[in-house]
Design brief:
mainly alpha; 9 helices
Length: 207
């Protein structure tokens, strides 16, 4: 289990580099006539930090080296039985993803889109973990995807009691949802394996 203090330090170290990216992105949207609401903008900044926390918890960005040493577990379900706590944590880890996506984008108002996005993001994490940043496990793909679906169900239930005008304020305007999410994900991965590792090891002098 990674200490909470370590997660906060490493995720914040990466997020510091993401803040100017998000600021410039929203300024560009504004200049392009695609002004977003304040609630949506704030929620995106929170979502951005969540992505850094997610990658930190999965072990990405903990070393300054990148050597391709895949350690893959192909056996399904066994790990879920022998390590139920890890299974539950893997589900919980992706719940915010399934909640944020439909909150921010109308495109993700169906569970199929959420499940596919959760699967693809989990697959990307498992691939990056092959570069000395952990082990890859097929069970993680299943539990992470399940977690995203649970997050969607939580949003679906909550949306029943939220005022329609409030829900609309959280939604993006005139942007391609899939492209935007992909952009945020790519920026997060790149920062975590470059600027974040440099800042933690060279500036903060953390092993």
């Amino acid at each position: 289990m990674i200490p909470i203090s370590d997660i906060l330090i490493r995720s914040m170290s990466g997020y510091l580099f993401m803040i100017p990216v998000l600021v410039l992105y929203f300024l560009w949207l504004k200049k392009s006539g695609k002004v977003q609401s304040l609630l949506h903008t704030v929620a995106v900044f929170v979502f951005g930090y969540y992505l850094f926390g997610l990658l930190t918890v999965t072990g990405i960005g903990f070393t300054s080296t990148m050597n391709f040493h895949p350690n893959i577990s192909w056996t399904p379900f066994i790990g879920m039985i022998t390590g139920p706590i890890d299974t539950i944590l893997n589900v919980i880890l992706f719940v915010p993803l399934g909640f944020f996506l439909p909150l921010l984008y109308k495109k993700y108002h169906n569970i199929k889109a959420i499940a596919l996005t959760g699967l693809l993001l989990s697959l990307a994490v498992e691939f990056v973990q092959m570069f000395d940043w952990g082990s890859s496990d097929i069970n993680d793909l299943m539990t992470n995807t399940a977690g995203a679906c649970v997050g969607f169900l939580i949003y679906f239930l909550l949306s029943k009691i939220l005022p329609a005008n409030l829900k609309k304020q959280f939604q993006s305007r005139k942007v391609n949802a899939m492209v935007e999410v992909f952009f945020f994900a790519i920026c997060t991965f790149v920062i975590m394996v470059t600027a974040q590792t440099w800042f933690v090891h060279s500036v903060l002098n953390i092993p």
